[in-house]
Structures are given as C-alpha cells and as structure tokens.
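Severity: low
Component: inverse-folding endpoint
Summary: output formatting inconsistent between runs
Steps to reproduce: submit the following structure tokens with default settings.
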C-alpha cells in the first residue's frame, strides 16, 4: 500500500517520498535585481529531504512582479543566481522545481514605475497590494492586447528555458489563486470578446499556448500545472455556474500533455454552501485527470497518508509546516511533534524565522 514515504516516479525523476514542499512566498530576494541569494539557497537546502521542493513563485518578467522582494527568472543575472539554489538542493539529495508566476492585476503601479498592472480585462480586483510605499488599494488594470498576450506567452517560454539553464529539475506553471492565468479562466475577471474570452475554450486558451511554447525549450514531462478550482471570495474571484465546467474542461484537456503532475488546492475557504462550488477537489478530479495528482491545503501526516493509501492522490504538498520544520519528513515518519512558525517573520528579511529553525532534538 502506498503512503507518504513511498517513492514515486514523475517525469523520469524518482522522488524519495511523496511529501512535497509547496511554493511559499518568503520575500528574501531583497536586492535590486530580484535575485536568489546564498540565504535562499540555504533555506531550500535545509528542506531537501522533501520528495520534491516547489520553489516560491518567481516572476517571469518585470511586469509579472506584484509582491515585495520576490525573485525572478527572466534575466541572466537571476538565472545565474538560481544555480546556487539548485546546486545546494541537489547536493543534499533533493529535487526542485521552480514555480513560474505572473500576478496580473494583483500588482500595483508602484511596482512598475507608475504603469498599470495588466489583466485580461480592465476589472479591478478590489483588493490591496503591499508596496514599498505601504498598503494600497488595487487599481483597475490595463486590458492586454493580443500582441501583449503573445508576449506574455513568450515570457513563460523564456522563463522555462532559464529554469533549465539554472539547473532546476522542472517547472510549475502558477495558473492558480487569482493570478494572471487564473484571471483569464474566470468570467468575473475576463469579459473579452476575442479569441481569449467568451467561451470556455477561449478563456483557457492561454494556458495551452504557454504549455505548447514551453515544451519546445524543456522536456514536457518536467512541467507541472497548479490550479485552484474552488477559489471563492479570494483575490477578486467569484464562483459561478461556469466555474466547474471551466476547470473540468481544463483538467480533461491537460490529459493530452505528458506532465509531471497536476497540483490542485482544496478550497481555501468554506464553500460548502456556495452555489456551484466543489468542496472536494481531489475526489472530483481524481476521476478526470489520468496523470500524477498532487493535492494541498491543510493536510497532516495522517490525512496525507490516508488520501494516498486510498488512491485519492499521488503526492501531498505541505506549505506552512515546512517553514518551522526543515526536517518535516523525518518528523512525520517518526511521529515527532511539529514546531510552530513565527508568522511575523513570514515576509521579512534575513535569517530570523527563515533558516534558524532547528531540526528536532529529543529532550
């Protein structure tokens, strides 16, 4: 019977276990070039016992930025800087994918010299953005032209090529959580009337264009995709009667690709009484998706073991537990207590609350 500690093959890679470190924004790329640093390399090295690490979201272009001190993968300097991270993880026996990120309308003009952030349509998320000048209300974004959309597709391709150059084992496309690609999928953020709007096929088009371009510069089986089908009242998203048919289409069509995995999130909020919502994401999409299925959101060692043993998923991603427990795999395996993370240091600078959490010691 499979469990969290059973090896698994994904994309020609053998993972030592099915415990995945989920992507976690930690805001430690506090330099003008948005580069990974030796501190970031040490952070990931400490957690290399995970079967797979998925890095923090890393922007594919300057316009993709929307959070303070997050790393990029669009420049030569950034690509070179990531090599110290991949070498550190590989040296410790681990595997690491990089998450490719464009936040779209969740950004703010403060990140772009006054330019508006971009999105499928000029619809404000009505959220907030934490900028270097403080917390500010979201603005109405610039609606992308078709040539601009094609440029973003090319940016994903370039980032994928850079990731291979930097030594990553693969990439994850962040098409989730209300960021740019997710904004295309949702009618509440996409009211276009051209080939990128209207029908389900049109609203999903950009993801498959990204995949088709990326697989020309890297192995198709080293690409993962992240989706969040029941995101509701989150980053301006609202579930409608169109939401589940859209994700059913997306996920069924992903079967046409030889991906490493599909990474799904259970609902971030209680959607039990939300019309048209699906409260059981893994259960629904295990029946549709034929490749490796990764699931996350609030799992424990016990519930993670259970969903794998029952064939409800192939891998389980853990986020917050990895912050304060660099040896999370060992703690799970031996039933050791977990340390609690200091929330005040999630998005600060320096080693405190980042690389200074110790491994478990008895007594």
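Observed output (run 2 of 3):
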């Amino acid at each position: 019977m499979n469990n969290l500690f059973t090896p698994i093959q994904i994309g020609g890679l053998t993972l030592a276990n099915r415990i995945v470190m989920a992507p976690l924004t930690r805001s430690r790329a506090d330099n003008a070039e948005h580069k990974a640093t030796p501190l970031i390399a040490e952070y990931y090295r400490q957690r290399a016992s995970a079967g797979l690490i998925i890095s923090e979201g890393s922007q594919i272009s300057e316009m993709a930025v929307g959070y303070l001190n997050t790393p990029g993968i669009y420049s030569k300097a950034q690509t070179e800087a990531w090599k110290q991270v991949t070498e550190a993880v590989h040296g410790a026996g681990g595997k690491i994918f990089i998450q490719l990120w464009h936040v779209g309308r969740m950004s703010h003009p403060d990140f772009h010299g006054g330019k508006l952030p971009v999105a499928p349509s000029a619809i404000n998320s009505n959220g907030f953005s934490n900028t270097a000048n403080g917390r500010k209300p979201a603005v109405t974004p610039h609606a992308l032209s078709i040539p601009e959309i094609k440029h973003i597709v090319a940016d994903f391709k370039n980032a994928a090529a850079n990731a291979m150059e930097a030594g990553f084992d693969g990439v994850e496309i962040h098409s989730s959580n209300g960021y740019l690609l997710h904004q295309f999928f949702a009618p509440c953020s996409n009211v276009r009337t051209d080939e990128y709007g209207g029908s389900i096929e049109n609203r999903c088009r950009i993801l498959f264009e990204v995949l088709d371009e990326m697989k020309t510069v890297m192995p198709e089986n080293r690409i993962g995709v992240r989706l969040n089908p029941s995101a509701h009242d989150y980053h301006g998203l609202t579930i409608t009667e169109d939401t589940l048919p859209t994700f059913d289409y997306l996920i069924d069509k992903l079967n046409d690709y030889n991906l490493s995995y599909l990474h799904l999130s259970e609902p971030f909020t209680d959607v039990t009484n939300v019309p048209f919502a699906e409260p059981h994401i893994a259960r629904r999409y295990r029946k549709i998706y034929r490749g490796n299925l990764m699931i996350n959101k609030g799992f424990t060692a016990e519930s993670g073991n259970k969903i794998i043993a029952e064939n409800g998923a192939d891998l389980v991603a853990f986020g917050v537990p990895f912050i304060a427990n660099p040896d999370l795999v060992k703690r799970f395996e031996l039933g050791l207590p977990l340390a609690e993370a200091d929330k005040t240091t999630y998005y600060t600078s320096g080693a405190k609350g980042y690389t200074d959490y110790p491994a478990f010691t008895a007594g």
